[in-house]
Specification:
By secondary structure, the protein is mainly α. The protein is built from five helices and no strands.
């Protein structure tokens, strides 16, 4: 294996742009919020009197498992790994329908929907920014380096 093909080489060179750092922080906050929410639901399901204990435990475990995607993506974004943008973008796209459903409720959930939508849209904008794309070493179609 040549040096260019080695997976251990750093994918990018140069300092991390602030936009990439902000995207990583927002992605990490989303992951942390999912993990905290999952643990909270899990604890309430096990210690409280839920309508359906099995459903509460399943939801809690699912939320904690789902938290892994944005947390791993945030770690990759901090390390400027090109693979990390995809999971972060997926997380934002999945957050938008959640925000929309919260905005449709006539309750206290509306501010949560606004916050989720604002974070998701902001993070998407930061992730597709040309400076972020360049820092991650992502090339557009037809811009692959020549293989000789």
């Amino acid at each position: 294996m040549t040096k260019e093909q080695s997976p251990a080489t750093q994918e990018t060179a140069g300092p991390r742009p602030r936009r990439l750092t902000y995207a990583a922080v927002l992605t990490a906050l989303e992951g942390a919020a999912l993990a905290v929410g999952g643990i909270w639901v899990l604890v309430l399901g096990l210690s409280g009197e839920p309508d359906d204990r099995q459903q509460a435990v399943t939801l809690g475990v699912t939320l904690v498992a789902l938290a892994l995607l944005p947390l791993l993506a945030a770690r990759g974004l901090f390390a400027q790994r090109s693979w990390s943008r995809g999971p972060s973008v997926i997380t934002q796209i999945l957050a938008l329908p959640v925000a929309y459903s919260l905005l449709q409720a006539d309750s206290i959930a509306i501010p949560a929907g606004i916050a989720i939508a604002a974070v998701a849209i902001t993070t998407l904008v930061l992730l597709i920014n040309p400076a972020t794309t360049e820092a991650l070493g992502i090339r557009g179609p037809g811009n692959a380096p020549d293989q000789k």
